[in-house]
Each structure stands twice: as C-alpha cells, then as structure tokens.
Amino acid sequence: MAAPALLDSRLPIVAAPMAGGPTSTALATGAARAGAFPFLAAGYKTTAAMAAEIERMRELGLPFGVNLFVPGEQAWDAAALDAYAQRIRPEAVALGVDLGVPPARDDDEWDAKVAQLVAHPVPVVSLTFGLPSRRDIGALQAAGTRVLATVTTASEARAAAEAGVDGLIVQGTDAGGHSATHDPGRALEPVATERLVRDVLVAAELPVVAAGGVDGPRAVQGLLSAGAVAVAVGTLLLRTDEAGTSPTHRAALADLRFDETVITRAFTGRPARALRNAFIDRHGAEAPLAYPAVHHLTRELRRAASAAGDADRLHLWAGSGYRSARSGPVADVIRWLAGSA
Q1: Residue 233 pairs with which residues in a beta bridge?
Q2: What is the per-residue pLDDT across 8-51, written as a single tens digit (0 to 9) for each?
Q3: DSSP strand pairing (167-171 vs 208-211)
Q4: Which reaction does it catalyse (predicted)?
Q5: Domains contained in the chain, CATH given
Q6: Exposure of 157 by Cβ count < 10 A (0-12 exposed, 13-18 middle, 19+ buried)?
Q7: Mind listing the pLDDT tens digit for each residue in 198-244?
Q8: Sign of the C-alpha dihedral, residues 228, 232, 233, 234?
C-alpha cells in the first residue's frame, strides 16, 4: 500500500482521534510506529494538556496530527434541559453522585488551542463539528499546518472546500462516537461511507480520508478503491493494549449482550453512535439537542458508571464494525488492516 502524501505516513491507515480517554499517547505512538498516521484528541482537554501530549510525540519524532472540536451555536431549550435533568437524576442517585451543572458556555478553549498550534505548529490539524473562521484556518496553514475538515455530506464538503481547507475526512453514519455533522439537529439518514466518499469527490476536488463502518481489510480496500487516500479507524482500536479505553467499555465491546449500535443524544446532547444499553432505552427518546450541556450534565454519572463496571449507564461509543475490534498490540491491528499481517 502506498503512503498518502497528505499525511506523510507509510500506510494509508489513520488512527482516529477518540476524545475522552481512548486515544492515549501510547496508542498514537504504537500506531505511528506501525506505519499509520495517528491523531491526538484535543477535545475535552485543556490547552496545557494538549500541548504536553504534542511535546511527547515531538520528542519521539513520529508523524501525528491533532484533532480540534469546533465550537458551534450553543442555544438550547432550558426547560427541556431541566426536564431531562429531572428525568435522569435517579440514575445519578443510584450511582451515588450528583448530576453536573452545565456552564453557560463551553468552547473547549478554542482560541487558546488555535493560538498554541499557530505558535507551535504540528503537521496536520483536523476539525470536527463544523468549520471555524477562514482566519483561523488560514493562520494554521500559514504556520505550516495542513488543515482537514470532517464532513458528513457533499454540501458540507463544498463548504469546507470554499473555506480553504487542504483535505477532508468523510464520515459515514456507521462511524462510532459523535457524528461530525455540522448540523446536529438534522436527521441522520443512513449512508455507507463508500458511497459518501464517491459523492464528496464529485462535490469537492480535495483529497479524502474515509471514516466509518470499517470492520476489516476488505472494508479498507473498498474505501481506497472508492477514491480515499487513507482510511480512519477508531472502534477497531478501542480494545488494543495501548488504548485508554475503560475496562467497562472494553468488556462491553466483547459482551454478546450488547448486540447492536444506535445513534443517540442521551449522553451528550449531540448524536453519537453507541452500543445500545438500558440508559439509551430509558432516556434516548427524551434527550434534548443540547451539546455540550448534556455532556456536562451526565459527566459524573458516566464516570461513576465506568468505575462501578455499570455498562448500562455508560456511553459505550462504537461503530457498526465493533464485533471486529481485537485485543492485543495496536501494531497488530494496523498490520491486519493494511493487509500485511
């Protein structure tokens, strides 16, 4: 397999950024040494924590990128959010914790992170949840960074191209974790990643990294044949030795009791694909569109569930290919996906 020039890696495999713990520097290091291109997940981290992880990767001299969450409009129905808090409060009580208090605004330290990355550039920055200003994109590029925008439709791809990005990460609806849709309120109609890649390549003349629904080498080859320069994998790395995935989440991925994935707003207020569990069944239909407020509301509940081994109250992010997630070194998974195992 040829290395994609966009990412400067030996193999056309990307270790996707998984915020909240799974993407550790050990995972990124192992993936890079195996020939893949890893992204550090800056989402939910402080600017200082992001900078420390970047410095560790620089010291190793390995290729890597950084993923940022783009802040969007943060207006939600306060009454609906309060009603949801009352609805899920017994779940927190059962775990011996209080629900969190959402801040009035949370932009994930966007300005500080961009300033840090402009002052101390990295090879690639990817964007999730939307498009920032052209000024911010241009500042990153002027510092020598290639900027990739994550898109979920052809229209989003056109907007990203017009904003001046260098490439696209095309995410199909089978992807695990948060949908990168620029409009979290829209209905997410199922779309295969291979088909979406072809549609995006017609809509925007930019190199494409494909993401979503990868369950093995055949899926990788199909996406490359569709025109992607590389294929991003996340769920398939969750059970690897180096991943920071919690023991509760790891066990659930291999537990036959969890037999399907669904898209839900129950844990964060933004659509995300997860293993279907009792919390989703009880509350998913009532969850408001209110990100990141619901994320803050349920954060301590989810931490407690993870610590207690309670998979029915935990956000078990997983893509449709989760049954193929393997334990063992991340390098083995990368080699398997690249067809060189």
Answers
A1: 15
A2: 899 999 999 999 999 999 999 999 999 999 999 999 999 999 99
A3: parallel
A4: 3 propionate 3-nitronate + 3 O2 + H2O = 3 3-oxopropanoate + 2 nitrate + nitrite + H2O2 + 3 H(+)
A5: 1-72+107-239+324-341 (3.20.20.70), 76-106+259-315 (no CATH)
A6: buried
A7: 999 999 999 999 999 999 999 999 999 999 999 999 999 999 999 99
A8: negative
Write the secondary structure of the chain as one string of H (helix), E (strand) and C (coil): CCCCCCCCCCCCEEECCCCCCCCCHHHHHHHHHCCCEEEEECCCCCHHHHHHHHHHHHHHCCCCEEEEECCCCCCCCHHHHHHHHHHHHHHHHHHCCCCCCCCCCCCCCHHHHHHHHHHCCCCEEEEECCCCCHHHHHHHHHCCCEEEEEECCHHHHHHHHHHCCCEEEEECCCCCEECCCCCCCCCCCCCCHHHHHHHHHHHCCCCEEEECCCCCHHHHHHHHHCCCCEEEECHHHCCECCCCCCHHHHHHHCCCCCCCEEEECCCCCCCEEEECCHHHHHHHHHCCCCCCHHHHHHHHHHHHHHHHCCHHHCCCECCCCHHHCCCECHHHHHHHHCCCC
Cα(279)–Cα(257) distance, rounded to whole angstroms?
14
**Gap between the Cα atoms of 260 and 82, Å rounded:** 30
Torsional class of 53: left (φ above 0), alpha (ψ -120 to 50), beta (otherwise): alpha
> What is the Cα–Cα distance from 150 to 170, expressed in whole angstroms?
6
Tens-place pLDDT, residues 99-148: 999 998 899 999 999 999 999 999 999 999 999 999 999 999 999 999 99
